[in-house]
Each structure stands twice: as C-alpha cells, then as structure tokens.
Amino acid sequence: MHQPIKSFSLQGVYRPARDAQHGVSLIMVMLIMVVVSMLGIGGVQIAMMAERGARNDRDMQVAFQAAEAALLDAEFDINNKNASSKRTVNPFDKNSPANLFLADCAGTGDSLGLCTENIGNTSPAWLKVDFTDTSTAAKTVEFGKFTGRAFPVGAAGIQPYQKPRYVIERLERSFGADGSGVQNTVIFFRITAMGFGPRQDLQVVLQSIYRN
To answer: Would you say the C-alpha torsion 55, 61, 67, 72 has a positive or negative sign?
Structure first.
C-alpha cells in the first residue's frame, strides 16, 4: 500500500540574491588597473623629463666650456706669441696705435675682432656683432685663427656645433694725477666669447677683463 506523498511549501525559505553581485569584482579590478596605469604613465613622464633635463644640462656645460676655451684663446691672441699664426702687427702692445681697434668691430686683417669701447648711451660693441656668423664677413674671431690652436667640433661624440668665437674691446681708464700733475692712463681689454653646444641654438656668452 503506497503512502500518500506529503506536500510542503517553500514559502519563507531564504534564497541568496546571487544575481545582485554579478559584475562588482570586475569593476573593482578595472578601477585598480586604471589607477596602476596612471601611476605607470606618470612615472614614465617623470623619467623622460629627468632625462631631458640631464641632457640639456650636459649640452649647456659643453657650450660653457667652449666659451671658456675661447676666453683663453683670446688671451693667447693678446700675448701675440705664435709666430706662424699671430697678427702681423701687435695691436695689444701699449705703444701700438689705438686705431687698430675700430667702431662696432668693423675691422679686417690684423684688426679683425678688435673693437673700440662705445661710450655714452650706445650699446657696447659686443652686443652689435653676430657671433653665429661664420662667413668671410664675420666680425668675430674664430678659435685658433691667430693662435694656431685646435678645437674639435662636429658630430663625433658630444662636441660643440661649431668653434667658439670672440671679440676684444680696448678700454682706457685714467686715474688721479701724480706729483707732476699728469694723470695715469691704464689700458686693458674686455674679452667677450660665445661658445656653442651640440646644437647651434645652445649658446653661452662669457666675459673677462684682461691686462697684459
């Protein structure tokens, strides 16, 4: 004899709402990935900026050292000791005529790169010349022209784009009179040099006062 099957109701039995949790983990993972990606991109940008800054600093140091070398070359020029390359007339001797130094550095030959001092409201001579000009009409002196010294340039390694250049101004200053009533006049020279980095747009200008 079969017993009747008892029926019962599932009413009131708790069923977890699994459908409501679908996709939450995916959203959290995606948010974490976005944050990590942004941090990675930021780190790469910082590293690239640091590398560019270091490269620019290196290139500026190259230009600075080239300008310093040009100052020294100008001092050799003033001392006028290289028999094979020196100016045929020494314009830097205290007994030499001042007319070898021309206004706005307009001289050629032995007067190339030699400037008179602009006095008054006019701009100094070194501001009126183009140090980047390498043509035959250039008013500046290329490194080694009157000294015979070599200066490597070009694309081999980290070298200046071109040789540094300089001009020399003749300055006179008079001081108080001595016992005879005569003022003392002192002659010295202002050297202005421009050095170049691996690119022509990287330039450094240095000045020095020299008395031989």
So the answer is: negative
Q: How confident is the model over 61-100, as pLDDT tens digits?
A: 999 999 999 999 999 999 987 778 889 888 888 777 778 8
pLDDT digits over 125-160, tens only?
999 999 999 999 999 999 999 999 999 998 666 899
- Diameter over CA atoms, the chain: 156
* Contacts by 133-136, CB closer than 8 A, 24 or more apart: 134/162
pTM of the model: 0.73
